[in-house]
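Annex B. Sample input.
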Amino acid sequence: MTRKRHVPDPRPYSSLVVDGVKQTPSRAMLRAVGYRDEDFLRPAIGVASTWSNLTPCNMHIDDLARHAAAGIDSAGGKSTVFGTITVSDGISMGTPGMRYSLVSREVIADSIETVVGAQGFDGLVAVGGCDKNMPGCMMAIARLDRPAVFVYGGTIRPGAGRTDIVSVFEAVGGHARGTVSDAALHEIECKAIPGPGSCGGMYTANTMASAIEALGMSLPNSSAQEAVSRSKRDDCRSAGEAVVRLVRLGIRPRDILTRRAFENAITTVIALSGSTNAVLHLLAIAHCAGVRLTLDDFTRIGRRVPVLADLRPSGRYLMSELIAIGGIRPLMKVLLDEGLLHGECLTVTGRTMAEELAGVEPYPAGQEVIRSIDDPVKPDSHLVILYGNLAPEGAVAKISGKEGLSFTGRARVFEGEERCLQAILDGKVKAGDVVVIRNEGPRGGPGMREMLSPTGAIMGRGLGDQVALITDGRFSGGSHGFVVGHITPEAAVGGPIALLRNGDRITIDATRRTIEVELTAAEMKRRHRSWRPRAPFARRGVLAKYARSVSSASLGAVTDLEPED
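Annex B, continued. Sample output.
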């Protein structure tokens, strides 16, 4: 049942901007952009659009933003659409431009907060469609704490032969191995990305869309709709209507974004076999919401939550195939019935999670995308938080179990991604190696680049179960294999990964949750005494500002920590 609250003023912010004689100049300016007399009496709702034709993930979002605005106006609000940036991880992957990817999350959050705060909007709909603009939107929503709904732009349809962007990256490795011809590589390049929408597996975009729905901050099924579909357009209009209701009910994001809501999001991400980036982004969103969340919460929850989804990159199916059988709602209903979700958590509908899931039908018989609770893909989480003398502040591994649960090998150390990728393509990385890519952390990169190109090349070369890769950078949701990222402290601040040398023996144990190098404490201290930090990659501009302000990946790589934090 909808919760009602006494809200004396549905325009707590916009009234300060448009009411009274002294605000006549403000009204004059707004009339020029289409305001009429009656609009000044309505709740003012911003629509943050991440539209851009830079990338298929966002190329359709201008249309979705207009549908959200129409929903706002029909429900008695006054919509104003404004833009923010996006960058494409898939396009910049493996290049220096990828340094700007995680940086863009902060720029997006800052820009939305800036516009909403300056314009005095009473509420917000944010429409995101790529890896970093979704958490960026949510960080702004959490900071502002004004009634808000997030809308996911939707997933892309499969390419020819059920291909997607990861198929292309892995084809590059296959080409280097000699198993993919020039003609085949060109064909997959031309056919794998058929149109609008975010990357088609349970990669970072679909992971974060699912996590945000589990948080209660998007409407039911918002995470499981194709970008080019009637249901997605209807979702946007409904989101516009919903935010006006939230304004009138006085329900704010921090009423929804409780600690238990974040536990629901973690549970759902694990069950879906989601991206390691969810760890980084959920920590950051929780920080913005004033909720204490740590790496150890992922371990605690992961011990009791199974992986149920057989989805790419480690599984067989695409997001569009999950949508075809009902999306994530039936899975969440199973989790709720098993006592793994907190049903009392509030959502943007004004109803609880349990109320929203009450009438959800189960998946059709015979489907193989989502396994039953008693026959899981993996009995506990694939997101494994590791500690040890290589990561005293933690690291995040993505281990499905298909690669095994432990790996011991000799370090092959690379200063940055480019040198590593070339070595893989040239056949210099061999079975038994632990590939180490360092100085790619939040500060040292700067920007914590994703390692999809190296992991894709490893898989394409047929080394996926014979090589481990560790880094103080991070991984695309499309990465799979025996991979460990987010190693903290990072190399740039003298963390243990900075001290590794070729040939050092490294053991990663997912069962014991450890990552260790066979060096004595005395030897590590001796190496640290001779360690010197690298010169900064950038001395001015956004990368330099980011490097100076960013926190450890173990804290979400946020840029606004208070001194006591």
